[in-house]
């Protein structure tokens, strides 16, 4: 069974199907993630994170994504993918989990009406295979596991030119500073371009949006 979430973002109504039940929304997101975890599988994709809401809003307010090639890292349920679809971007949406891609594709078609400008593909950051260059790389709340920081930076090295831009939305976890130290060492420049307050699950979350460029 699936359940429908409705978001109103920058005057766009976005409908997102989720496997979570209404009862799941009585607790915290961390509690829900723990409940649905098994063995080494942690289903971070199973709900919409505040950083995805902030990044979707940022995308919908921008004019720079139209007809641009965009790589999305960790698309989850596809909220930011849908935002890119509204901006007519040419999207490669990726996730580690097959079920996440299944939901992201359904949600994209539900909101955009077709999948002409989007591909949904499996990507393991530890064994990346995408070597083509993109105009933009985006990710919402992807800086959460230290042992993956270098893998993410390596993907940016492989998929960005000096003209490319990466936008990462992050809630400001203390460990994120370690990720940005790696970026510096690998000759990337970065800056915070937006700070947004997101209200979701009866909580207010501050989200920083970083712009990252090759030096």
UniProtKB/TrEMBL annotation:
GO MF annotation terms: methyltransferase activity
GO biological process: methylation
UniProt keyword annotations, A-Z: Methyltransferase, Transferase
Transmembrane segments: none
Claim: Methyltransferase is one of the keywords in the record: yes
Entries under InterPro entries matching the protein: Methyltransf_16, SAM-dependent_MTases_sf
Domain of life: Bacteria
Family annotation (PANTHER family): HEPATOCELLULAR CARCINOMA-ASSOCIATED ANTIGEN
Name listed for the protein in its UniProt record: Lysine methyltransferase
Species, as recorded: Candidatus Thermokryptus mobilis
Record lineage: Bacteria, Pseudomonadati, Candidatus Kryptoniota, Candidatus Thermokryptus
